[in-house]
Design a protein that fits this description.
This protein is an alpha+beta fold and 252 residues long. It has two domains: 23-153, Arc Repressor Mutant, subunit A; 160-251, no CATH class. The protein has helices at 23-29, 36-50, 61-65, 68-74, 83-97, 126-137, 143-146, 160-167, 173-185, 188-200, 206-219, 234-241, 244-251, and strands spanning 59-60, 100-107, 116-123, 152-153. The chain has a four-stranded antiparallel sheet with strand order 1-3-2-4, sandwiched between helices. Helix 2 crosses helix 5 (83-97) and helix 4 (68-74) packs across helix 5. It is globular and about 70 Å long. The protein starts with 22 loop residues before the first helix and ends with a helix. 22% of the residues are buried. The model is unreliable at 224-231 and 248-252 (pLDDT under 50).
């Protein structure tokens, strides 16, 4: 169990560097944040970016995962998850909320054993969005200094957390775990299409989406189902996509 400190003794009597945080954070973003780890991560990101110079201000996921100060802060939040697990969940939440903008960088040639991925994060400010756009366009001169010649940007699919919150409902830790399992188990195209079917059929439930994916996995997926859900009746949706054992629960 994490050791609890005796309390904060106060700021030292020395000159300290201020950290700039937009007032919009307190008026609009803070009331939306309902997870302590996400809040700690968000404030930590502001602090780290405040220390950076130049036009390209970003955070590498690898650096965050090895940041002892951040991990120590997160270690006090739960006895059930490791600090790294809490960080991953906080990154997913902050990205889904739109606080952080994620960019995936692919290093090396496809199929090369040295190929690796990096995740970068920008705070969703006007400057952050501008820097992200310039990076994607390869127009930022500083980009050459931080990326190897063989690095290239990935075309990133919608984050599954964003997909869920925009189409189904609020994210919870339990749902987040199920969404991660879905990402590991099914192709991205299947997941996108299953969400589309749920929305088209007005069956906005994770169990419905899981049932669609499970049926495709067990019975095979008809590639023509990209038109699925458009004009189908509820009975047709039940017949096409929902295994019998789930139909009464989900569509009943």
């Amino acid at each position: 169990m994490p050791t609890r400190s005796a309390g904060f003794v106060g700021f030292p009597d020395v000159k300290m560097k201020p950290v700039k945080i937009p007032d919009f954070f307190f008026t609009d973003l803070l009331p939306q944040i309902d997870d302590l780890a996400e809040l700690k991560l968000t404030l930590h990101c502001f602090w780290l970016l405040n220390e950076q110079d130049g036009q390209l201000k970003y955070l590498r996921g690898a650096d965050l995962r090895s940041d002892e100060t951040l991990l120590r802060s997160l270690s006090l939040g739960s006895d059930l998850c490791t600090p790294v697990q809490m960080l991953e969940d906080a990154l997913d939440r902050a990205t889904a909320r739109g606080t952080l903008l994620q960019l995936e960088i692919e290093i090396g040639a496809p199929g090369n054993s040295n190929e690796a991925d990096e995740d970068w994060y920008f705070v969703n400010t006007a400057k952050g969005r501008q820097a992200l756009a310039l990076v994607r366009q390869g127009k930022l001169s500083e980009l050459r200094e931080v990326l190897p010649d063989e690095a290239r940007l990935k075309v990133q699919r919608p984050n599954i957390f964003v997909l869920y919150e925009q189409n189904i409902g609020l994210l919870t830790p339990l749902i987040a775990d199920q969404l991660r399992d879905m990402e590991k188990s099914y192709p991205p195209d299947w997941i996108d299409e299953a969400f589309m079917i749920a929305v088209a059929g007005n069956k906005r439930a994770l169990r419905y989406i899981q049932a669609v994916l499970k049926r495709w996995e067990t019975e095979g997926k008809d590639e023509r189902t990209h038109e699925a859900g458009r004009g189908d009746s509820e009975a047709e949706l039940r017949r096409k996509y929902i295994p019998d054992e789930f139909s009464d629960i989900i569509l009943g």
